Amino acid sequence: MTRPWTPGTVDDDLTTLAATPRLVVALDFDGTASPLVADPMAARALPEVATQVERLAALPDTVVAYVSGRSMHDLRVITEHTDDSAIALAGSHGAQYWFPGEGDADAPGEATEEGAREELWAAAKPIIERFEGAEFEPKTFGMGVHTRRADRETEERVFAEIDALVAERFPHWRRRAGHRVLEFSSRTEGKDAAMSALRERFDATGILFAGDDVTDEDAMRVLQPGDLGVRVGPGESVATLRVDTPQEIAALLEALADERTSARQ
Asked: Which residue has the higher pLDDT, 179 or 152?
């Protein structure tokens, strides 16, 4: 049962997580660390979120990671990520990784069939360009269609045509639908894979994962006892806690950092 968390309140599950020996704080980006914006590449973490991310990443035995459906290149742009960053990244829903002190790390899985991605792009772009407000997003393992600038009727029409195209020519590709976005990937990984990879990589004894969209529920469902899932905004969820906005995520991260600092003194 998902319950609301109000800034300034004490939550027993958050307090317990704060005391775990090795903590991973994993955050979706769009709609979680950043508000949803019309131009996907204009997304940036709220300053108050960025402050708490830096604060947590500086604590002993604590790792912060952004876990996103964005390709690694785009994820590094929107997170303003540098080569000396202490923040780990999982891009393409867990098919790409970047680790502090190491850089890019290969994820297991089959590569995209040669030329298939470009074939899909070539077929999809003319469809997308016919619809006002629809935008094409190239991805490392596929593509996305964004409709944040379009009305709902346009969204339904462009999504229907793209669905028909992919069903006919790439029926085995993984389909994901989210907030005003439809995407397809030749890779099958979901954010559940990212949770497993981060847990193993950092030998985590506890994970906090926060996300706002349908694809984030993949990660929520594989959290273990001692972990904590946080849903941002409305929607059905298996998360333990719910907050309303990215601003409240900042407050929750601040509370976690405060309690973890106190627990380790």
From this structure: 152
